[in-house]
Amino acid sequence: EELLSVIETATFTVPGTATMYRGRLYLSTSFVCYMSPNHRGCRITLPLAAVRRIERANSVDSYGLQCYELTITVWHQMSIAFRVPSTSNECNGWCDSLRGQLKSMVEEQQFAKTHHTALARYTLKAFCKTCASEHLLAQSDSAASGDVYADCLGKTFGFPGDPTTQKEKPKTKYWIKYMREYGRNLTVIRRAEFDRLIRVGLPNCLRGEIWELSSGAMHLRFQNRGVYEKHVNDYLDHPGPCAEEIEKDLNRSLPEYAGYQAPEGIDALRRVLNAYSLRDAELGYCQAMNIVASTMLIFMTEEQVFWTLSVMCDRMVPGYYSPSMYGASLDQSIFQSLVEETMPSLARSFKRHDIQLSIACLPWFLTLFVNSMPLVYALRVLDCFFLEGPKILFQIGLAILKINGGALLEAADDGTFMYILKEYYGTLGDSAYPDSKNARARQVTRFHELLYVAYSDFPRITHARIEELRRSHQLRIVHSVEEFSKRTFLRNVIDASGFTKEQLSLLYDRYYSVLFYSRSHQRDGATGLTKSESDEKILLDVIGFARFMYEISSWM
């Protein structure tokens, strides 16, 4: 994907309202995007295939100044209008680039029809049929009852929690209203209300689609249809190196859920995990990935889970599921520093009693709280996670420690620490104010309190802050991971051939130093390594071996 053109100042008027936003209008190879910078702004990501018509006309803005009005009519018959200053030359270049991209797209579509090829990138109608929002709106239009769920495990085995307690019907009505006014799936306008509806909890019928949409995985699936099926077929023909390890973990994945007590659920999870391990052969498979994938399969199709897992591992929590889990270790280090910054008394107490924070907190990050909280509440955390990224994991973790701070200050060992948190998780559905005379206050649960504390007490935990902390902590974590790998390797050496520990350590450092520089010159960007190719990653070629001998020998 390549960025082609940008209009720095564009005013967007929300359809059917007088609300206006100022932001930037982007054009890439396959998308038209708009982003308003303030926290109550809006975001739009339109595939070019969803554009049905675009018009440019002279107009006047709210200040009486001359401007261009760009009106884009999308697949769902919604018109989106942008106003651009007429003095800006960016508009002409942007429109020319868009015209060229649309022309190329039409030519590709015509070629596909003539030669009977499956040009999945532009077949929007078939793609929309896989989205629950289309069925939900069609059903509400016809006032008929029917199935609106995607082909997920929840459709067959049921969804966690009680629909009445979780207010499924009211939430669904709000989403229907929003989608009628501001679009759906590939053409949705994401306003502040979109974010608010996610934070109050998603209805089960839309949870999978909104996870996919808010994470960006929906656009990957749209552009890469057929890729998942290819990887599944490759796995069925030639199981990858991770197949055996995946098989061991299948029955440990949400065993309390009925879907994973049946072959349908186990088979679906097996296909997804093996397909992903083939897509990213370098990462492969890591424990805890099965927990997250099995949770997503309750609400999403296998293909949706595959692409959402890809976005999560590549962009949202990179390195969490690598063999060394350096990403999770990095975020644990950051979390420890945030605890010291925001709750110094609690941090000192942990240090005084030698309480290891990572014992409880590492599973929070690896399983995204699925293995810690009751599932109905972990799903609410996942709603926020796919919307806002990993910062919510830090905010929720800090809020848990703050709410339980008084009890945790009395903890003198790891066992007591874990017991306090376990007891707290069991009370998340209880009223936070059971003795209040206000009926509405009594309805506020301890989970509602947790979310409130997370957002109100830790607003400085932003995406930019997390990225900055990741950069500052990265070198130390990478060094500690390398040191751990080195100690493990040297400890497992059976025959030292007369070398001392110090000499073996020196040989190890020299060898991997030469290997690193050899590989850096040979790197070609390939990711699809076979098992034998993966083994060769730690082997030196003739030139590398000669350099290694030169490094360790005084006589060369």
Short characterization:
The protein is α+β, with helices and mostly antiparallel strands. 56% of the residues lie in helices and 10% in strands. It has helices spanning 90-115, 124-128, 132-142, 153-157, 168-182, 192-199, 204-215, 217-223, 227-237, 243-249, 263-279, 289-297, 302-316, 326-342, 344-352, 357-366, 375-388, 391-403, 405-409, 414-425, 439-442, 446-457, 463-491, 501-522, 531-535, 542-552, and strands at residues 3-13, 20-28, 31-35, 43-47, 51-60, 66-74, 79-85, 189-190.
Please identify the structural class as seen in this structure.
alpha+beta
Question: Please, what is the average pLDDT?
Answer: 86
Strand arrangement in the largest pleated sheet:
5-6-7-1-2-3-4-8
Query: What's the β-strand tally?
Result: 8
- Radius of gyration, CA atoms, in whole angstroms: 27 Å
- Fraction of residues in helices? 55-70%
Beta fraction: 5-15%
Uncertain runs with pLDDT below 50, 5 residues or more? 523-536
Q: What is the count of DSSP helices, taking H or I runs of 4+ residues?
A: 26
Q: Judging from the principal axes of the Cα atoms, what is the shape?
A: globular
* Cα distance spanning the termini: 49 Å
For the largest beta-sheet, the strand count, sense and barrel status come to:
8 strands, antiparallel
Describe the model:
The protein has 556 residues and is α+β, with helices and mostly antiparallel strands. The protein has 26 helices and 8 strands. It has helices at 90-115, 124-128, 132-142, 153-157, 168-182, 192-199, 204-215, 217-223, 227-237, 243-249, 263-279, 289-297, 302-316, 326-342, 344-352, 357-366, 375-388, 391-403, 405-409, 414-425, 439-442, 446-457, 463-491, 501-522, 531-535, 542-552, and strands spanning 3-13, 20-28, 31-35, 43-47, 51-60, 66-74, 79-85, 189-190. A hairpin with a 4-residue loop joins strand 6 (66-74) and strand 7 (79-85). The two termini are 49 Å apart.
